[in-house]
UniProtKB/TrEMBL annotation:
Lineage top rank: taxon: Bacteria
Residues given in the record as FAD binding sites: 212, 237-238, 251-255, 268-275, 289
Protein name according to UniProt: Electron transfer flavoprotein large subunit
Recorded GO MF terms: electron transfer activity; flavin adenine dinucleotide binding
A single BP term in Gene Ontology: fatty acid beta-oxidation using acyl-CoA dehydrogenase
Keywords: Electron transport, FAD, Flavoprotein, Transport
Family affiliation: Belongs to the ETF alpha-subunit/FixB family.
Gene (UniProt): etfA
Cofactor(s) listed in the protein's UniProt record: FAD
Span of domain Electron transfer flavoprotein alpha/beta-subunit N-terminal: 5-191
Cofactor note as given: Binds 1 FAD per dimer.
UniProt-listed PANTHER family: ELECTRON TRANSFER FLAVOPROTEIN ALPHA, ELECTRON TRANSFER FLAVOPROTEIN SUBUNIT ALPHA, MITOCHONDRIAL
Amino acid sequence: MSDKLLVIGEVKEGSLRNVSYEAIAAAKKINEEGEIVGVICGNGELQALGEEMIYYGADRVITISHEQLKAYTSEGYGQAILAIVNEESPTSIVMGHTAIGKDLTPKIASKLNTGLISDAVDIEVDGDHVQFIRPIYSGKAFEKKIITDGLTFFTIRPNNIPALERDEARSGEITPKDLEITDIRTVIKDVVRKASEGVDLSEANIIIAGGRGVKSEDGFKPLYELAEVLGGAVGASRGACDAEYCDYSLQIGQTGKVVTPDLYIAVGISGAIQHLAGMSNSKVIVAINKDPEANIFNVADYGIVGDLFEVIPLLIEEIKKL
Ligand code: FAD
C-alpha cells in the first residue's frame, strides 16, 4: 500500500501561511510517490485555499469549515484533525513548527499514542529510514532522528525546506467535510492584533534586528527604513524589548521567535547565546556593531565595525542606487 501523507495547512488572516506549502514539500521528501492530502480548518469559504494547496503539490484537500474553527483552539482543531486522521489513516502527518503547530501537534500525538519529531529543518532519506535533522543546544549542534515504527509525525521549522513551485495547471479534489465539534470549553471572544508594520517576522526572508545599541524607540527608525528598501521585516533582541524600545512581539531568540531568513542583519546586538538560539541558522548573517570583540561577529558571515547610526544611512543610500 502506498503512503498517504497528511499535511495540516495553517490559515492566517485569510491566507495559508507559507509553511503550509513548505510542509507539502517536506511530505514529498519523505515519499515522492505517496498521496499528499491537505487539511484546512477554518470558518467560511475554504475552496480557494484548498486550490492553493493543490497548486503547491497536494493531490487532494479536505476542508473543514465550522463556527468553532473560526479562531484556533487546541480543542476545536484537535477534534477536527483527529477525525480526519481516523478516517484517512495516514502514514505521515506534517505541520509547520509555528505557535499553533507547537500547541496542536503534541495534543494529537498523545491522543493517537504516537511519537512526534518537532522542529525539523531538513529531511534525508537513507535506505528504508527517513532521517529528520533538528537543531539542539540552542542551534549549536544538529541531531538526526528516525522513526522506526508507526506513524511518521513531525513539524518543520518555517523557511528551511523550500516550497515546490506553484503550478496552476495542477488539479485535485477538494472535499468539504461536515464535522460535529462539541465540548469546546475555550471561547475566543476577540482577537486583538498588534499593529505590525510590513512583512511578517516569522516568514520574512530578510530581517533587520535591533539591539540595546539602538538606544531608543526612535533609534529603530533607520532600521525600519532599511527594512523597507530591502523588503524585509524588523526584529529585536530581548535587550531592546526589555529597554522598551520596541514590542516583545519582535523578540528573536530562545524565549522569542526562531527565524531562518536568507539575510539577517544584527544591528547593535552583542550576540548573547540566547539571542543566537533564535537566528544562528539564518543563511547569511551580517553584524553591525561598534565593538570589534562583540560575540555576534563569531557567527556573522559579514561584519561591519562601526556606529550603526552612521552605517545604516550609508547602506540605505547605496541600496537605493541599485
Ligand atoms: P547588549 O548585550 O547590551 O548589546 C548591545 C550591543 O550594542 C553591544 O555589543 C554594543 O557594542 C552595541 N552598540 C552599542 N551602541 C552601538 C552603536 N551606536 N552602533 C553599533 N553598535 C552599538 N535575548 C534575546 O535576544 N532573545 C531571547 O530570546 C533571550 N532569551 C533569554 C532567556 C533567558 C533565560 C535569559 C537569562 C536571557 C535571555 N536573553 C535573550 C537575554 C540575553 O542574555 C542578552 O541579555 C540580550 O540578548 C542582550 O541584548 P543586546 O545584544 O541587544 O544588548
